[in-house]
Amino acid sequence: MLNQIKTLADQYHQEIVDIRRHIHQHPELSFKEYETSAFVQGKLSNWGIPFQNGVADTGIVGYIKGKNPDKKVVALRADMDALPILEENEVPYKSKNEGVMHACGHDAHTSSLLGASRILNELRDQFEGTVKLIFQPGEERLPGGASLMIKDGVLENPSPTNIIGQHVHPLLPCGTVAFNKGKVMASADELYITINGKGGHAAVPQLSVDPVMIAAQLLVSLQQIVSRFTDPFSPSVLTFGKVNTVGGATNIIPNQIKIIGTLRMMNEDWRKKVHAQLAQMVDLIPKSMGGTGVLDIKYGYPCLVNDEALVDRCRTAAEDYMGKENVWDMPKRMAAEDFAYFSQEVPGCFYRLGVANEARGITSRVHTPTFDIDEASLKTGMGLMAWLTVTELAM
């Protein structure tokens, strides 16, 4: 079976490259993946793979039934949405939707899952159980397409025993993968702060309540949450990425300032405590300076927890497929992923797929306008996912 999968991955590689390039050229933002969804449905139909569409609107669930299909169910997941980034790569498959780009590799995820689907469908008479194919919208935007698909019943009828997902990683060379178990990615909350003061002429600040100075004091003070109010043995990040005045000029003190940021944590108990501390400081510090502060926390993705036993099995299977030297340890990351919602419901394994090629200059990080992948990684992406699936079904 292993050699058959490798042969089929090699046979279908160019077709999957072409699929990835089509998706890359036609990126769509979160929850607007209508053309991408239709394209995926077309491929599944051409290959004779039954599916259900309209799950969380643009999501798709496919089914590959082997012998004795009720014996065990393994789910595979790929996300389909792109980011609001203007692509700077000069490549034949450059984005045709200006200002929208697959800068996080979801085109590679979707095409790899399509490749794995084609391989598994061809081999379905050689394994027992059912493979559930989850093509998910909206990973990049709250509330996360995973949570919406779960609400729509994606993990029911039939319920998977476990779920496997992969994500491209530009710090890993093409031809390698990386695994880790336990908490591997952080929770992520969006923070929206409004500071209200009293505007006026900059030459007479004593007649105003300056929200700029309140914002400066507040931002510096809030950093103490990470350094003094959180568990020092549990990673946490508090970052503010945008500060806007409503009005204001060189000689005008504005009435209001808006600040947005993110809170990332690896400890759900401390996460709740930090929410309370944030609310208290946003309230009291502006009050102490004559203004008011309002905090809106948009509760985001939880920590992503990989099931230890499943990861151990997948890692061993990956070593059999790729060679032990090509299977690395994956460091924990403070980035977030809505795959975490799936892993809360069923045992999950979320691993990293190496896509870098330093010799060709393919080293840009995700969420940048020059991100790209070495497309040889797609052969690994589809082949390994197929191998992990048949290995799990055989357990």
Descriptive notes:
There is one protein chain. The chain has 2 domains: 2-184 and 304-393, Aminopeptidase (3-Layer(aba) Sandwich); 187-298, Alpha-Beta Plaits, CATH 3.30.70.360. The strands form 4 sheets. An 8-stranded mixed sheet has the order 1-2-4-3-5-16-6-15, sandwiched between helices. It has a 4-stranded antiparallel sheet with strand order 10-12-8-13, covered by helices on one side. It is elongated. The protein has helices at 2-25, 34-46, 106-122, 145-151, 211-222, 224-228, 268-288, 308-322, 339-345, 377-393; strands at residues 51-55, 59-65, 73-79, 130-136, 162-173, 177-179, 182-185, 187-196, 200-201, 236-246, 252-253, 256-265, 292-298, 304-306, 327-329, 348-356. The protein has 10 helices and 16 strands. The protein starts with a helix and ends with a helix. The model has no long low-confidence stretch (mean pLDDT 97). The protein is an alpha/beta fold and 395 residues long.
Principal-axes geometry comes out as: elongated
Structural category is alpha/beta
Strand percentage lies at 25-35%
**Rg calculated over all Cα atoms:** 24 Å
Per CATH, the class of the largest domain reads Alpha Beta
Measured distance between first and last alpha carbons: 15 Å
Number of helices: 10
**Sequence of strands across the biggest β-sheet:** 1-2-4-3-5-16-6-15
Order of helices and strands: HHEEEHEHEEEEEHHEEEHEEHEHEH
Which bin fits the share of residues in helices?
25-40%
The number of distinct structural domains comes to 2
CATH superfamily membership of the largest domain, which one?
Zn peptidases
Whole-number average pLDDT?
97
Label the CATH architecture of the largest domain: 3-Layer(aba) Sandwich
Q: What is the fold-level CATH name, i.e. the topology of the largest domain?
A: Aminopeptidase
Low-confidence stretches are none
The tally of beta strands, per DSSP, is 16
Largest sheet descriptor: 8 strands, mixed
